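Reviewers of the previous submission asked for a worked example of the structure-prediction workflow described in the proposal, so we include one complete record here. The input consisted solely of the amino acid sequence. No template or homolog information was supplied to the procedure at any stage.
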Amino acid sequence: MALFARRHLQRILNENAAFLAPKQLATVCKLLNSVRDEYLSTEWEQVILNAASKFGTVKHEPVLAGDRAPDLWFKAADESFEFVADVTTASDRGLHKLNPVDALDEEFWRHQRKAKLFTGGFDCQVDAYPNSVYRGSGERVRLKLPSRRDFENKIFNAEFHGFLRSRAPGFCWTPNCDENESEITRRCV
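From that input alone, the workflow returned the following structure tokens.
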């Protein structure tokens, strides 16, 4: 998913063409025009390079000593300092595996379509294990969800299908799982 508008990215790429080699620019354009998990990192790298170029000289992936080429070499316009940097992007990819709530929703909607329920709404609430999550703690939010392989037995079972058939407004359903393993509430709205 893009962070910046396409016209803004196009302006950035046009400006970055002043210091990107034609092959680098073609590679960046190809990456930005494809759907992939690392899209945001490519976009963010170009934005950072562009911002740095406003204050000095920029080289993208210069060849320096060593095996790796850093993302950015920068020298200030007044030549007072220079630095080399790698641009990184924060990711929550590990949390998606730890908390497969998207997979839970996809599976729920698959069952709903299979039951030919195309109208009406459902609300879903998934509780989390209580823990102290704060910056630097190393703790991560963990939702009370069984593993994906256990969805069919523990969540989308006969009791669930009875819930789908009832569809009474305000009717709630909570999977009958071990309290420490799962706390999910679905509600017809």
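Helices lie at 6-16, 22-32, 39-53, 93-98, 101-114, 151-154, 158-166. We consider this example representative of the routine output the project will generate in years two and three.
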